[in-house]
Design goal:
The protein is α+β, with helices and mostly antiparallel strands. The chain is built from 4 helices and 4 strands. The longest helix is centred in the first third of the chain and has 35 residues. It is elongated and about 75 Å long.
Length: 169
């Protein structure tokens, strides 16, 4: 958001005629363009590394839900794990607290959630940057109104290790 304000301010400054020298205007536009280009390249490169790791996981490892309401794939510092989980919005995991992982170490964090008229199912997996699985979690529950109205008929099967790799298409 700060970048948007910076661009807005520079454009207004250029329109107002406050910067009279044409060379200064061109230099300012060039520097701003290079800054934005560099920012885009950095964001793309970081996202690309995470996607490459995710796509390299064996089928028996973690996979996002195919029709997820929310999913996260990112590299996080251990101290920021609780903040990263908030990226799932209302599906965030409550158990991922500060201090769970070493504060200044980076980890791959993946999380995914699906919801239908009767249930909410969410899962996460955490790997170190060498690819070792550190932690996983699965949470599923029936919606209260479905249980009270006898529309929820129970789970098809119990939660198991294969739930992490289940795409639920």
């Amino acid at each position: 958001m700060e970048i948007g304000w910076l661009i807005f301010y520079v454009i207004k400054l250029l329109e107002s005629g406050s910067i009279l020298n044409y060379q200064i205007q061109i230099s300012l536009i060039l520097v701003l363009s290079l800054f934005l280009l560099n920012l885009n390249v950095c964001v793309f490169a970081a996202g690309n590394k995470v996607d490459e790791f995710y796509n390299s996981l064996p089928k028996s490892e973690y996979k996002e839900y195919a029709h997820a309401k929310a999913s996260i794939r990112e590299i996080v510092l251990g101290k920021d794990l609780d903040k990263a989980s908030l990226g799932l919005g209302k599906y965030a995991f409550d158990g991922l607290k500060k201090g769970f992982l070493p504060d200044n170490q980076e980890f791959y964090y993946f999380a995914s959630a699906i919801e239908d008229e009767h249930t909410i199912i969410k899962k996460y997996a955490i790997y170190d940057l060498n690819g070792k699985r550190i932690a996983t979690g699965i949470n599923r529950h029936a919606k209260k109104e479905s249980v009270l109205n006898n529309k929820f008929k129970g789970w098809e099967k119990p939660v198991g290790e294969n739930e992490l790799s289940n795409k639920r298409e």
